[in-house]
Amino acid sequence: MVFYYPLEYNLMEITDSLATDIKDAPDWFHSAISQSPRKENLNHPLGNVAYQVWDRKDAQDIIILIHGTWDRKDAQDIIILIHGTGAHKQWWDPIAPLLCNKFSIIAPDLPGMGESDHRNAYNFEDFSDALIAIIHQEKIVHGNQKVYLVGHSLGGHVAGFMASEFQDLFHGVVMIDSPIRPPTYDYDKHQSTGPLRRIKYYPDKVSIIERFRLMPPQNCDNGWYLRYIAEHSILNVEEGWRWRFDDKLFATLRRLHNYEFKFKCPALFIAGGKSLLLESKIMKYIKEAFKDSMTVEVIEDAAHHVPLDSPLELISYINNYLEAWIEKE
Q1: pLDDT computed for residue 266 by the predictor
Q2: Can you tell me the distance from the alpha carbon of 6 to that of 206, in angstroms, rounded to the nearest whole number?
Q3: Domain ranges of the chain
Q4: Which of 54, 126, 168, 281 is buried deepest, with most CB atoms within 10 A?
Q5: How far is 48 from 46, CA to CA, in rounded Å?
């Protein structure tokens, strides 16, 4: 989840130049973000949905980023990368190019976030409908291609929901620090973590970027990663600079309270060892409730935003499990 309050980036001076601000990022990061994906748009009755695709023309497997004009007879597998609340598809820009090159990759902006249209209300059924519509638009051959879902935070819940509801469509799911609470959890006492105020407008780019930070509150040593996603979280309109997400999202999203995830496909849960969202009771419940259907791994040095805190370790886990799942099929 993303919130927007004052933030001092670690050892980083914020300017209006992204290239200047991230010049000290590691080589692997620069190499990854230099691999520009194909930008696409889904025309949908409830609002258009933006997404991007990393086409791997030599890939036998495909991760939802496939061009509709391709001959897909030999294509097999696909990975869909799903971001968290208030985030956007470009959170995955440093991650996607480093995933196993056997796959092509699709990363959508969920409705109400990123470059996707805002809607009157938000729910998991509509999120799922949008992603399945992308699959159809990309002309993915269901008989030959396997589809894998990878989601962080809210995106993990979307991935888990889709894998549970459409068990014959998906062949593997990875949930990254997405709390699964026990059926006895009292949501009436749950504290909401939405923005403190409605969208406001800022006079210039630097002013709004200086307001960017993560929620729940956490440190992040990779300031260049934060600066990169902040760059793509903003929009310059007539009134000034604003955040792209729909601030109604936090109040109108109908969440999966007491939803029972059921996985027919292989499933992996990756937790941040320092995550404030995964208290010991929740982790104990996840390990016990899904001991027969989902493997749990912990990246000890990561907090909730695992992709930002430990990107290379996360990539390694995803690649290793995908390879193992494929070998078993």
Answers
A1: 98
A2: 12
A3: 37-199+246-328
A4: 54
A5: 7
Q: According to the model, what pLDDT value does residue 319 have?
A: 98
Are 93 and 228 spatial neighbours (Cβ–Cβ below 8 Å)? yes
* Pairwise CA distance, residues 216 & 163, whole Å: 26
Report cis status (omega within 30 of 0) of the bond before 216: yes
* Helices and strands in the chain, H and E counts: 10, 14
* pLDDT at residue 257, rounded to an integer: 84
* Domain 37-199+246-328, CATH class in plain words: alpha beta
CA separation for the pair 243, 235 (Å, rounded)? 6
Give the C-alpha distances (Å, rounded to integers) separating 190 from 127, 181, 186, 193.
23, 11, 7, 9
Residue that has been written with the tokens 């956490």 in this structure: 218
Q: What is the pLDDT of residue 180?
A: 95
Block residue for tokens 């819940």: 157
Residues of the chain by 3-state class (helix, strand, coil), percent to 5: 30, 20, 50
pLDDT recorded at residue 68: 32
Q: How far apart are CA 217 and CA 232, in angstroms?
A: 20
Q: Is 106 exposed, middle or buried (0-12, 13-18, 19+ CB in 10 A)?
A: buried
Query: Which stretches in the chain have pLDDT values below 70?
Result: 1-12, 57-76, 141-143, 188-197
How many angstroms separate the Cα of 1 from the Cα of each of 88, 155, 244, 306? 10, 10, 14, 12
Chain CA centroid to CA 218, Å: 18
Grouping H, G, I as helix, E, B as strand and the rest as coil, residue 76 is coil
